[in-house]
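I hope you will forgive my troubling you with a question about protein structure. The matter concerns a single protein, recorded as an amino acid sequence and a row of backbone structure tokens. Please examine both parts with care and let me know of anything in them that strikes you as inconsistent. Here, with my thanks, is the record as I have it:
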Amino acid sequence: MSRLLAMLVCVAALSGCARGDPVLSTPQMAAPARYATDLPPSGVDSEWWLGFDDPVLDALVRRGLEANLNVEAAAGRLASAEALLRAERSDRLPGIDGQAGVGIALADNSRVTADAGLFGLFNPDINGRLAAEIRAAAADYAEQDYLLADQRRLVAAAIASQYVEYRRTGARLDLLDQSTDLQEQTLRIVTLRFEAGLSANLDVRRAAADLAQTRAQRGLIAIARSQAENALAVLQAEPPGVFAVPEPAEATIPRYGLGPPAGVPADLLRRRTDILAAEARLERAAADIGIERADLRPSLTIPGTLGLGDGSLGGIFSNFLLSLGAAIDLPLFDGGRRRAEVEAAQFEAQARLAEYRATFLQSLGEVENALVSIDAYRQRNDELAEAIEQSETALSQSNALYREGLASLFDVLDAQRQLIASRQDLIDSEADLASSFVAFHAAVGSD
């Protein structure tokens, strides 16, 4: 026994000198000091969708985060990773198995035989493989934890985006009704003037064509509305066609009021869960290098057995036999396979580092794009509001001149088209602005 202990101490000492597994430090990223476009800071720094002040949207997001199947799947993968981490940690403890058997020996008057015993195995992890495997499993668990949070980020943004689209189509349908009413009034006036001999039949045809063209948009808007509603149903884990979005009080685009400040680009490294997941994958790659390096070192296992009985059924507890040993595996020659596997793990770590950097740069681009969009759509909305005001005045004046015979129907219809187009553009621009706020919060990793 003393020789066995001395040998174990010697092997452990030699192995300890060979240890040198890579330890990951968070990569330094060259992040800009500030974003190119500023967003004024405000009061809401969590549950960003509350900035829309829309109870329907709030209910949809909360329900979706609870019921969404992608979130549920991510939670299942997290639970699986946690179980695998516990399994890896259990390898640091001795394993014990039991065995028992009963048979009949045909010799010696068919004597009944019996045997039982305990078998144990302990790995002291002198080469560090178990420790590296635990690090790898812990990194996998961290990645799945971040991916669950990232899935919630994406689901909240997807629900908000589809809700904005649903509201956009509602506003477009409401505008369509207003536009058809306006064009129907024009058609009635033109028809009366034609019947009175004050206008040509060509004017009637032009007004009727414009009205039909406007009505023809209803089907396309209905398709977009149905698609948004069905997408919301899937995000809520509800069957499309059965789920119905509660109707808001007004057919308008939700406007974003308060929200968190953009912060600085370096904040993405601790707020964006997909970046943190990429960092966890980098940690896993570093642990894999340690696993492969461990195979270059000696390994040791300590098996033990405890036998019971003398072989007879009645003497099962009469004798006890205990044995303890040690098995050492010394890597000598494998044609370079183990070192090639270490190199492969090192190259994989380099790839993971490149992916980490690419994820950060992509996230940075998403924030910048969202900030630019917010600023641009705000300015566009102001200009479109001015265009609508001018178009309404032009239409009113052209109608008055047409009744007096001082303007042609073409002037009236052209003013109508400009007004309708400007109103449609404003609805779309307001929806794009709302979507830009959604994209911004998804990009900065808001809760």
About this structure: Confidence is low (pLDDT under 50) at residues 1-18. The radius of gyration is 37 Å. The first strand starts at residue 95 and ends at 105. The chain has one domain: 35-92+128-295+340-444.
